[in-house]
Design goal:
Blueprint (H helix, E strand, L loop, with lengths): L2 H27 L13 H23 L5 H12 L5 H27 L1 H11 L8 H23 L2 H24 L2
């Protein structure tokens, strides 16, 4: 994947993912796209809770991926991220695109139909983390299933902004750490 296609994927995620799920909202939930942002929680509370959850779970994820058993997983992802040589603004951009687009699709459009856990498993499987041929990656994938289910509960309890913020923070920290991990070798 080239750097240009990586950023194109970010933009597609930001715009196309929410549009893909729009029929699920409209026909199965009888909602319009703007209603998914309605919440009983103040936006600043959602934002704070989401960023906090993302910070804690990404720190734990980073600690897990440091385990010797997961060296190949960490090296694979570090090498993948290194090829893009992302700056901090680029990490922020990509993380926002993924957090916004994927959480609208999976939390607001799919989760109400399939439930938190099935949606979380599908989300992690699509990302390739539940590969039975790669047991270390599967171990990491199991942890991420719990994290993503937690994001599902954030959405259910607080609102979409909390889910987007959590996803954003997780991606920011892990993209940064994986890029730095390679650079420190």
């Amino acid at each position: 994947m080239t750097r240009k296609s990586f950023f194109l994927l970010g933009i597609v995620t930001l715009i196309v993912f929410p549009l893909l799920g729009w029929p699920l909202l409209y026909f199965f939930q009888e909602k319009d796209i703007t209603s998914i942002f309605n919440s009983d929680s103040p936006w600043f509370l959602e934002l704070g809770i989401g960023l906090s959850y993302g910070l804690v779970t990404s720190i734990v994820a980073w600690q897990i991926i440091q385990i010797n058993y997961l060296n190949d997983v960490r090296t694979f992802f570090s090498n993948l991220i290194q090829q893009f040589n992302l700056s901090i603004p680029e990490i922020l951009f990509i993380s926002f695109c993924a957090g916004f687009g994927e959480e609208i699709l999976f939390r607001a459009e799919v989760q109400p139909l399939l439930g938190i856990w099935l949606t979380s498993i599908i989300f992690i499987a699509i990302h390739g983390y539940l590969n039975p041929k790669n047991k270390p990656l599967c171990v990491y994938g199991i942890y991420t299933c719990f994290v993503i289910a937690g994001i599902g509960y954030l959405y259910q309890s607080y609102g979409l902004i909390s889910a987007i913020a959590a996803h954003f923070m997780i991606d920011v920290i892990l993209l940064y750490q994986l890029g730095e991990n390679v650079n420190e070798r």
